Amino acid sequence: MAGVLTLAACAKDSGNDNAASGGGESSGECVTAAAPPRPEAGEGKREKEAEDVDASDLKVGLAFDVGGRGDASFNDAAAAGVDKAVEELGVSDTTESTATGTESEDAKQQRLTQMAQQGYNPIIAVGFAYSDAIDAVAPKFPDTQFAIVDDDSVDQPNVTPLVFTEEQGSFLVGVAAVYKSENCHVGFVGGVNTPLIQKFEAGFVQGAKAVSDKVKIEIDYLTPAGDISGFNDPGKGNVVAEAQIDKGADVLYHAAGASGKGVFEAAKANDALAIGVDSDQYEQKTVADVKDVIMTSMLKRVDVAVYDFIRAVAEDDLDSLPERFDLAADAVGYSTSGGMVDDIVDVLEGYKQQIVDGEIEVSATPSN
Question: CDD domains annotated for this entry (predicted)?
Answer without folding.
Answer: PBP1_PrnA-like
